Description:
By secondary structure, the chain is mainly alpha-helical.
Amino acid sequence: MEEEIEVTLDTLGFYLQKLLSFDHLCEEAVLYLEGLYQSIKRDEEIAKKFCLLTLHNQKFYDFFSRNHETDAEFEILQTCMIWNSCLAILIQSPNVMIRAAIVEKSRIFATLLINDPDVNVRMRCASTWEKCAQQLVYDENYLVRSCCAGKSEEVALKLLDDCNLYVRKACTIWESCAALLLKDPEKHVRFWALVRWPKFAEHFIYDEDAQIREKCATLNESCAKILIHDTSAIVRSVAIKYAQDRDLALTRKDDPSEIVRRTLVQIYKDIADNYKDDQDSTVRMAVLQAKPEYADYYKDDGNEHVRKLASSFLTSQQDRY
Length: 321
């Protein structure tokens, strides 16, 4: 059987039943499927009848599920959506993906689906159409409300006091909302307000959360210069990298934290000599990496990792000669 299947309105039911009679998607079944697919693209009445015949036909869904071809099921039903008359039928589809796809096709049908029991459909409504976002602003599900916040600045302004941090985080996509969330009690919300709007970095220099202060240092050179003297060693270390101010960085040359001393050696290799006998092995390791010529000095170091690195450098030097 090699010829293309010609499906008409009268033979549609027969060919559909024939397709569903196969246990697996064999070559012959593919021909039937392709014939149905082409006829649906060509004729609105055939597409409409196909939707009616398959809407609540469990054999249809079982066939594609059994053959692990749910994408093919979705594709053929999505093809029906080129016809508005099919949308009116498929809005009742038990397939969540189909109902969600309908939302994107038509604002009118999306409005009819805003109270859909499936959260994914409501999320699609909110993220696709501003009108739907306005109606779903107080939906019981925080994911839906988050989509509402992301769709409309006007809606997001109504959600700044939402009990869920992910909803407030979604609001930070808008500058006006981010500005009102700079002092949010939840650090994740403040963090995303900063990431999305680096212009607010100066407001976070003294934030109680070290991760937020660290992010400030990476986003704003002026903030980095101030944060070189932060209470957190990690923040000081990051600030040194981003401040691009050698003189200011070297005010931390005697920093009590090995993290900071190691960072200084990595950035300003010419000062490595000052840390040659540092009490911390990771700092000495950084010195050796900056100055491989010190390998002989460190070959008997008290730390195994330093000795191994020194040994590898010495071996490399010998191989060159």
